[in-house]
Design goal:
four-stranded antiparallel sheet, metal-binding, zinc, 4 strands, binds zinc ion, 49% helix, Znf_GRF, GRF-type domain-containing protein, alpha+beta, 2 domains, zinc-finger
Length: 106
């Protein structure tokens, strides 16, 4: 990520001029974006791609939606796993109880 000059001026939620950066991530190499110019702890969270259009944002929304679906599925799987672990635990508890009562009589 490096600072660069952009043709458009954009203001962030603080009402100040947002700073322009160039993305260096593998997903968006060389893509320019604007961000609040204040340091992380004080900034307003403003962040926008320079070429952000309705089409791009709907692609991003779809991407996020499919990520959410995957996460939901993973959660369901984990819930099922947890259920089966709980059943295992109950079975082990019963086994332990019966072993303990056996021990008591010996
Ligand atoms: Zn700001």
């Amino acid at each position: 990520m490096s600072e660069s000059t952009c043709d458009t001026m954009m203001t962030c939620f603080c009402g100040e001029m947002a700073r322009c950066f160039t993305s260096r991530t593998p997903l968006n190499p060389g893509r320019r974006f604007y961000r609040c110019s204040k340091p992380k702890i004080k900034n307003c969270g403003f962040w926008r791609w320079e070429d952000s259009s309705l089409e791009n944002s709907s692609i991003e929304v779809n991407l996020l939606k499919s990520k959410l679906e995957v996460a939901t599925l993973k959660m369901e799987n984990l819930r099922e796993l947890l259920n089966s672990i709980n059943i295992d635990r109950d079975n082990l508890k019963k086994k332990l109880e019966s072993l303990q009562s056996l021990n008591y009589f010996m």
